[in-house]
Fold this sequence. Notes:
- By secondary structure, this protein is an alpha+beta fold.
- It is built from 8 helices and 9 strands.
- Helices cover 46% and strands 23% of the residues.
- This is histidine kinase.
Amino acid sequence: VRITFTPIHRRGEGLNGIIAVLQDVTDQEKLEQARREFVANVSHELRTPLTTIKSYLEALDDGAIEEPQLASRFISVTRSETERMIRLVTDLLHLSRLDSKQSLIHKKMTQVSDMLDEVADRFSFQLRQRKIRIHIQVDPDVTSLLIDRDKIDQVLDNLVSNAIKYTGDEGAIQLSARRSNKNDLEITVQDNGIGIPKKDLARIFERFYRVDKARSRNMGGTGLGLSIAREIVKAHGGTIHLDSELGQGTKVMFTLPMQSGEGEAL
Ligand code: ADP
């Protein structure tokens, strides 16, 4: 609570009274706290790969460069840390554009089943490498709708890449599209991977929130994938939910509303 006092004087008299204003600043305080945490998180997330890169470069400089095997391992770590930093900065830029509403939504008619087939194609190398099966199911009454294809591709890429990251070899991923009972398009990405503990579910869409930071980093994660997905879905007027059972798997479901006046466009 912020309290401000204003003295009241009547002409010719001394102090006549005081007005005290009590202002509830909980929301402002929370916002400020969230902003401070975000800046601290960004700094930490950038500092970690930079520290790693620095120490590997020093080791190379101290002689490791003369040993080809060691040198090539050190360089490859340096490169993958640099790539992760680029991903992080790119994700931050996307988020900041979405936050400031600078990133406009450019909608175009999109065939849903083609879009899902293409996501699977983009990950086909990783899927094959990890022997993960992907199954796509599109209900017959789902055809096409107006969306910002690039942005929804990013949502799908983030969700499918998570499904792959957090699922063991030979696992299975299901991508499905159907009409919800409110006549929205409902897309589900489901895996049978490691799952998420119940206690973490409420915070999972927060920026940088991760169940296991070390695991996420090792997998190349930035901790921003789900927050970006949520912002993009929100910008389309849809909603996103995540359901998970530890050790059983995770299901992320998002909706995209049909455009008004388009009737059967979906
Ligand atoms: P990250 O880059 O760490 O994957 P995300 O924002 O995409 O960041 O996800 C946040 C966290 O949610 C992840 O670190 C992981 O702990 C958890 N998570 C997301 N998707 C899944 C999934 N399909 N299975 C298990 N855990 C998941």
